[in-house]
# Entry
Amino acid sequence: MSHQLVSHDIVEVDFKEIIYERRPCLDKTGKPVAGLYNAWIMLNNPKQFNSYTTAAVKEVILAFRKASNDRSVVTVVFSAVGDKAFCTGGNTKEYAEYYAGRPLEYKQYMRLFNDMITTILMCDKPVICRVNGMRIAGGQEIVMACDFSIASDLAVFGQAGPKHGSAPDGGSTDFLHLYVGIERAMFSCTLCEMWTAYEAKTIGLITEVVPVLKIDGKVVRNPQVVTDRWLDDSGEMVYGKRKSGAEAAAAKELMAKGQIDLEPLDKAVNAMATKLLYMMPDCINKTLNSMRKKKLEHWDRNQQSNRDWLGLNMMTEAKAGFRAFNEGPKENREIDFVKLRQMLAEGHPWNDEMLNAILPK
# Structure
């Protein structure tokens, strides 16, 4: 006896800012499985390093709801177009030109952002982040809500908020310590220094690292980082760190001879999805929800107060930082931090005079 299945989608949407597609699940032999799919949700703004606009955030929310409701979807793959960036966070042009100085508008935007994080955490399917390039700032935050991360070994990971006028309160202050421990999380969130993919794997931030650079037809590990395990003279582990000096220059020359091929990354993502295919679907979902509670404990406690603060911050440091990044010359997109501190020490109010004094010239 057959029944007409009911749709539980809130709305039907024609995706324009992102790409949504179903790709066949692969069985253990690599053959497509009839009637079963992985949903691929792809950020599609490669010219701006896949930063998300307000419109894109709305579509990501609806895409995850769609994938979650689709009875034929086994796994969700969250990724982006191109090979340079998964995501570098919110669209700084939109932040600088629309949201800067408009705290109530940004607060409304942050409601959408928070809904995006929550929708990922509440997805009824396992979520794999396919890290095709840089995963920075809000790009790092949105996918710490995912369940697994498989990365190109050319990717870098980290935060940018305190350098450009924000705090990493879109997820990193809630999630990052669960992955890497409190002190590493503190270091990343405050100083905004990047981790390589190999460092990220070593400290527990991601599941797997995949070489994607082809030189003379062969896939090689990222030549810009140390991929042998050894200690320096001080006893510190060097594995995964970026090379410097003459080694870095030689690695850059070698990089120029190669081509990026993301096929090995796709194979690794599909292999993970295939493993999930051969598990009990309800048991997997319950396990995911039980594990996600650790993230939700922090997220639900903080998301609204963080949203309030981030809105108000658009009148002060965010207004300055995002304008500096958007308007400053390519070689200098940061405010004058010393001048800002000097003026604040003198009790100077946040006004146009201060803004003009600290913006890059």
